[in-house]
Amino acid sequence: MTGHLFGDRYQVGDTLGFGGMSEVHRGRDLRLGRDVAIKVLRADLARDPSFQTRFRREAQNAASLNHPAIVAVYDTGETAGETGPIPYIVMEYVDGETLRDLLKREGPLAPKRAMEIMADVCAALDFSHRHGIVHRDIKPANVMLTRAGAVKVMDFGIARAVADGQATVTATAAVIGTAQYLSPEQARGESVDARSDVYATGCVLFELLTGAPPFTGDSPVAVAYQHVREDPKAPSEVKPGLPRELDAIVLKALNKNPLNRYQTAAEMRSDLVRALSGQAVHATPVMSDQERTEMIRPGPMRIEGQRAGGSGKPPLLAPPRAPDDLWAEEEPESRSKKRVWGFIGVGVLCAALLAGAIFFTLRIIDSGNTPSKVAVPQVAGMTQDQAIANLRSNNLQVGNIVEVDSSDDDKGKVISQNPSQDTVVDAGTSVTLNVGKGVTKVRVPDVSGMTKDAATKAVEGVGLTIVIKDVESNDDQRDKAITQDPAAQQDVDPSSSVTVSFGTGLKRTAVPENLVGKSFDEAAKLLEAAHLVATKVETDSPQPLNQVLSLQGSAPNDNVPWGSTVLLQVSNNSQFLMPNLLNQTPEQAAATLKDLGWGGSVDTFIKSGVDVTDTALINSIVTGPGGCAAGQAPAPETPQSKASASITICVGQPKMLTVEPVSGLTVYEAVGQLQSLGFTNVSATSLVGVVPPAGQGNRVQGTDPEAGNVVRFDTPIVVRVYVAEPPPPTSSSQSAPPSAGGGGTTGGAVTQGPGGGG
User: Fold this and answer.
1) Are the C-beta atoms of residues 434 and 417 closer than 8 Å to each other?
2) Residue 338 is labelled as binding a ligand
3) Checking CA distances to 103, which of 72, 356, 524, 585 falls within 20 to 30 Å?
4) Range 96-286: architecture per CATH
5) In this protein, which residues make up the domain named Protein kinase (predicted)?
6) 442-503 belongs to which CATH class?
7) What's the pTM?
């Protein structure tokens, strides 16, 4: 169990001890921040419904007792065990030790200390008895002393099967208790009442004074037999020197007949307080051996059984003497003679008294005669049955029994009697008893599910007062009664009030605006201020890390219950926005993408070539036909994975052209045709000194590179052109001297070569 958390509130700590039915742990109330003791029903007993019932009865009994000398019960519950639910009780943690531990450590206590402790025990028992609860197992192990010396009685109302290494008598369901402290009626299996606790208290007081219980034996049955049959010793017989008043208190508490014991724990406490203050106790004093010897000595005799409360000195039986005789001196001889005659007189008197006692005893035994005069006992405070039994045992009759108004605590108990206590009356006199009938009860109506108006009418309709309390609830319980205290169908005093809790529904709040674009931490603080809870949902995005992108499942200004969870889609910054790469070289494009977080390189690009006829676009990213319409893929402004984006670029490459034949064309025709093919660097040159074939003057002889070659568009193409044909010879030309000349074509212009003219 250690380390477990019960009821989401109580942290179970180290084991403090074990009992017959349970084990007790130190615990911590996490809600209130205080130490507690947690009693848990043993797992092997938790399967038995009867033990569960007894354990729960202990919780109910103790929880109803609010007294400084009783260990308080704070809470109860159940926790899951391997074999089913295991009940537990959360109690006041007492920092101290039990009387059993104190006796083991110190031995018998001083009379004053013992009486002080037991007076507090009696106060606790009187409180429980007045609330209808009989402890049934008072013993040193069930009484604790705090470090400050305060008394705490525990284990109220529980019937144990095994306890503290001391066997418990369980021959019948009615015989429950530890043998050393068992009352005779418990040992006989008879019903018990408060006087059984008085008997056990007397046993504990005996043990505190002497160091041992009044009866011991080899077995629980042997001890129980002694409780029924044998008279206890006076404590002073076991430990000489103890006050006679304590003998009287203990022996009265240990009387075999419940009618002759203290009738209430309050009576026993009263005698203990009297003894502590030096007053005479009500219990009949026990005569010492010396006093018994004095009964046969000459001189006055004590009357046994003098009622306490007088001078404390029993009256003397002696002939009255004149005042002068009390102090008169007597002659030795006269005193001697008188002493002799005194012995003789006393002897005769004793013999006469003894004979008379025997005679009257035999008469009583033989004839069953009863005394003619009796003193009326006090029966006020007893139950009606106890009072009737007490009166009849004192040779009195029960007269009228009159029910009178009383508190609920006194219901069924004798409030007053007539004749009153100690009145001497004839035997057989009738005694009238006024018995409390308690307070007339009112039954609490069931208001569950009602509205406030309906519940108010129902409660006030039976004469009770309603106290309305608003509590948070599910929305379907709004403005309806959820719980009530006291519960429905309970009988309560007419002056009682009924507290009814009505549901208010769940508290609601609006989802804040402007969360998108903020960091997750900023958004979470805004939600917390609105009594909401932020939950992060990471999303692939090129936005900055942890920036809120959107709300999932809700929207700004939505009206939601307090404590609701708002899902925030948050960027994990795993992407980048694709830039425009046009006109960049592949190397430049790779650097641009690297700056955005791309994990690729120039070699990672998927490249497509685009023929260009502009030298500035060669090895640049350009647009083109087909898949190169954008010059790149993916297109600009689209999100891409930093780790795995696949990027295609279209790179400009020089257009390749085939040199077509232009032979026989004029230079102008040839140059134009080549330029129309896309060649950008076409020139012509004249073939000086080369005689053109017939009809080929000023015609293209060929190109360099030759026709049919495939070359770049910007490759220099030189058109070779024949010069004009020489004119036929004439007379004038024959007489004229030849002229020298040369020429060529540049940029398509043809220069005349050497020739002659007529």
Assistant:
1) yes
2) no
3) 72
4) Orthogonal Bundle (1.10)
5) 10-273
6) alpha beta
7) 0.41
